[in-house]
């Protein structure tokens, strides 16, 4: 498109008014859903990725986990009791989601972690079949990333939004619980240094406090194969209890659940909004059924 000259006026274009949907009119376009890859090809694709993807990513995660005594004890007991995966996306529809799932499967095998839970509101039917194949459990409700943990837990959250990390920290904002948290996800140190103004600090207090008090260590992950940005600017974040300001009681007062002032974050969908969206979807589905019966 050529650039407008300085003396060329803007041309105002009147938007065409959209026709309001009327299920009784009979003029309905078929509802097309994107189901992604068939389940057999999906399993084959993820298996292939698990065997060919750069093992340096998984090895770095395991080494960082070992630093936090998550890998094993002297008697072989596994201390990584569970892995919580938020915001994976839809592996049946997204290549990067499949790559992230492949690394997750490697991590499960390396740590021999028995309990793995996933949640993303975009999961499709084939995604859930895929997870069943690998014996991964899909959570039945949206936790809004507010799960409090009393045992060593890896939160696997590559490329999730800031609010999701902040919510995990808020839910575990005690010295005992925070010591159980390990993130595999965004390199919060790089991004916070670039964006940490007063507004950012007030909205994402728990991320900023963790960094400013030097309570955590950030270990950058290597990139995956060229052409894939599944783990670009990703890191393992481990919390060190020895660095916690234990005596500062005011510091550990977390206050009410964070409010992000109506901002929209891709994967973080509040329960009330999710309920309304599902109600509208059910209403549309019923309307289509009513028309088809006529």
Automatic annotation (TrEMBL):
Q: Where is the SRR1-like domain?
A: 74-236
Q: Which InterPro entries match?
A: SRR1-like (IPR012942), SRR1L (IPR040044)
Q: What Pfam families does the record point to?
A: SRR1 (PF07985)
Q: Name one GO cellular component term.
A: nucleus
Q: Which family does it belong to?
A: Belongs to the SRR1 family.
Q: What is this protein called?
A: SRR1-like protein
Q: Which organism is it from?
A: Hyalella azteca
The organism that produces this protein has a lineage beginning with: Eukaryota, Metazoa, Ecdysozoa, Arthropoda, Crustacea
């Amino acid at each position: 498109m050529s650039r407008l000259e300085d003396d060329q006026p803007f041309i105002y274009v009147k938007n065409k008014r959209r026709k309001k949907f009327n299920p009784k009119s009979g003029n309905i376009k078929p509802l097309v859903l994107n189901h992604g890859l068939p389940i057999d090809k999906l399993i084959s694709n993820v298996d292939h990725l698990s065997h060919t993807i750069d093992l340096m990513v998984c090895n770095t995660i395991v080494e960082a986990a070992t630093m936090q005594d998550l890998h094993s004890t002297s008697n072989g007991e596994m201390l990584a009791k569970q892995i919580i995966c938020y915001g994976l996306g839809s592996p049946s529809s997204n290549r990067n989601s499949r790559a992230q799932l492949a690394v997750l499967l490697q991590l499960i095998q390396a740590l021999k972690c028995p309990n793995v839970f996933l949640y993303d509101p975009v999961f499709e039917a084939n995604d859930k079949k895929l997870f069943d194949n690998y014996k991964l459990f899909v959570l039945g409700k949206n936790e809004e990333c507010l799960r409090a943990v009393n045992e060593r837990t890896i939160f696997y959250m590559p490329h999730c939004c800031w609010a999701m990390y902040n919510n995990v920290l808020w839910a575990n904002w005690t010295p005992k619980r925070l010591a159980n948290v390990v993130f595999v996800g965004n390199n919060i140190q790089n991004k916070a240094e670039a964006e940490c103004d007063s507004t950012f600090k007030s909205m994402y207090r728990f991320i900023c406090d963790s960094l400013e008090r030097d309570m955590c260590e950030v270990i950058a992950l290597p990139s995956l194969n060229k052409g894939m940005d599944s783990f670009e600017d990703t890191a393992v974040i481990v919390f060190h209890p020895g660095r916690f300001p234990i005596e500062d009681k005011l510091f550990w007062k977390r206050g009410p659940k964070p409010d992000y002032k109506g901002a929209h974050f891709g994967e973080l969908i509040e329960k009330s909004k999710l309920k309304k969206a599902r109600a509208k979807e059910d209403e549309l589905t019923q309307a289509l059924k009513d028309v088809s019966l006529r």
